[in-house]
Amino acid sequence: MVGRVYLVGAGPGDPELLTLKAHRLIQSCDAIVYDRLVSEDVLKLAPFDAECFDVGKRPHDHPVPQDDINELLVSLALRGLSVVRLKGGDPLMFGRGGEEALTLQAGGIPFEIVPGITAAQGVAAAAMVPLTHRGVASSVRYLTGHCRADAELDFDWDGLADSDTTLVVYMGLANIIEICRELIDHGRSSDTPVLVVSRATRPEERRFSATLGTIPCAVKATGFESPVLFIIGEVAALSKYQEIPTDALQINHFAAAAE
């Protein structure tokens, strides 16, 4: 008898931000296949006898290739198990949930997709920053800060430079210097506010504010490590979080960050 696979969003980290359905499935699963961004507090909800598989990826370190993850999900389901494929945030937001769904569909494996609160939503709520705001930002765009196989960033920079658009950059720590440079080169003001958040909604959450022109140096000065999310746009100025003083950054915009 074939089991069922649930592609579940674990939210940004705080277990209280799980959906009721996600909470129920995690507590009743036979096997759980989880990513690096799933918090320990969420994993503790799994049954003590559930089979657990850590398939997390890190920058330049993918110990379990995506094809192997796909095969694992199929093999567990063929054993008749109820499988929770647990992803940070939402499974369809930069989480390769679509690729896994297509694999399961091709293999005739029953599956469901259970949405989760995205990292962007978690960050915005925790920092009390609206991603859109009347008279300030009329649209929001999500983008990944790196491309497959470390290819060059190929974005609609002219569109992203629109001052009425809030940008939310996932996985952008390694390329934030290039991202900021391109945005400024395509017309976005270097004074555009930026909010930087690491480990959103968790006890170890860290965040600070700066500007598009100072953020590369600020990230270097603070020593933030991934996962880090950037909110770029005028709405970031609505956050009550303190901006890092400019004189503390020893700024020469990108030159200092590149040292």
- At CATH level 2, the architecture of the largest domain is 2-Layer Sandwich
Compressed to H and E, one letter per element, the order equals: EHEHEHEHEHEHEHEEHEH
Task: Report, as a whole number of angstroms, the end-to-end distance.
Answer: 59 Å
Specify the CATH homologous superfamily of the largest domain: Tetrapyrrole methylase, C-terminal domain
The percent range for helix content is: 25-40%
Give the strand order, joined by hyphens, for the main sheet: 3-2-4-1-5
Main sheet properties: 5 strands, parallel
Share of β-strand residues? 15-25%
**How many beta-strand runs?**
10
Number of domains: 2
Report the C-alpha radius of gyration, rounded: 20 Å
By CATH reckoning, the class of the largest domain would read Alpha Beta
Molecular structure report:
The protein has 259 residues and is α/β, with parallel strands linked by helices. It folds into two domains: 4-114, Tetrapyrrole methylase, N-terminal domain (Cobalt-precorrin-4 Transmethylase, domain 1, 3-Layer(aba) Sandwich), CATH 3.40.1010; 119-258, 2-Layer Sandwich (Methyltransferase, Cobalt-precorrin-4 Transmethylase, Domain 2). It contains nine helices and ten strands. The strands form two sheets. The protein has a five-stranded parallel beta sheet, with helices on both faces. A five-stranded mixed beta sheet has the order 6-7-10-8-9, with helices on both faces. Helix 3 (66-78) crosses helix 4 (97-106). Residues 245-259 have low confidence and may be disordered.
